[in-house]
Amino acid sequence: MEHWISTLLLNLATPLIFVIAAVSLFTLGKGADILVDESVGISKKLGIPKAIIGATIVSLGTTLPEASVSVMAALKGNPDLALGNAVGSIIVDTGLIIGIAAMIQPIIIDYKAIKVQSWIQILSGLLLVFISLPFISGGVIHQWMGFLLVALLIVYLVWSLKHSKKSVSGTTDSEFSVDLLENDSAEAQNPALQFLLMIFGIALIILSSKVLIPSVEVIATRIGIPQSIIAATLVAFGTSLPELTTAIKAVRKGHGDLAVGNIIGADILNVLFVVGASASFTTTGLVVPHDFFTLQFPALIIILSLFRFMTLNKDRKISRFEGGLLLVAYFIYLALNYLL
Length: 340
What we know:
Blueprint: H1 2-10, H2 14-46, H3 50-62, H4 64-75, H5 79-104, E1 107-108, H6 111-132, H7 134-137, E2 140-141, H8 143-162, H9 170-174, H10 178-182, H11 184-188, H12 191-222, H13 227-238, H14 241-252, H15 256-280, E3 286-287, H16 296-311, E4 317-318, H17 320-339
Antiparallel strand pairs: 1-4, 2-3
């Protein structure tokens, strides 16, 4: 799909591509609005914490770009891209996206709702590193390991939804959307309709990002920005655009716990779903490059540990200062990619 879109855009005049990029950006924002509003509506209607909705249904939808890119890369014999996309997305999600969201507005954490998920988040990262170690697997994530990760994904999703109502906290109940409380029509909506609208919002976000990123790439190329810079920024950033847009919209609407849940869930799914599916589709497995052990995996563990520490603070929020620390950690990682 991306190749077809890029080919189509290359044949268009630059002013028209600017228009397409602007429309894509607008629909991306609208999709995020729909996703956040309907997710909060379902959360309230079913009595499930927003953080749990974010960590399961929303994150499953927003992680689809990473999954599609990685599975196709694995099928084409490019395990570096498949694994790198998953690991890089975790680092972008946790460092860059949570950092930006917290800088916009401090994020209140519904810790009771995400306590187990946040442990699963860091344990998933450690599991990925463990099964990649040369003395454990020979530096290959084998096909059977992929099947195991997918099985763990199913267990995680079923367990999260089954036990979600037990983790509802007083904080979450008091912070439901003011818009929903004031909007009788939203209260009266059928949960099935809200779910369909949420799926529509996810689809709108993904399709908009699929058009927006190639549009910006073409524009950047035509105005003389080097391909190396485009590849290191726009392409790497593209698959995490759904999480970024959703997080910013959620925080601005006062639903920071939905944003945190989405990122926690996305990190878990990048291991269990993206890496698991990619390895499952290849008989030879995913070969782990040696340089992953010098930068990618250490950065993954450091940023996940930093985020985990922030969720444990006594204020039960991620402050602007802590968001700044995550951004600094991410940009140090970005710089080291060029220096090492």
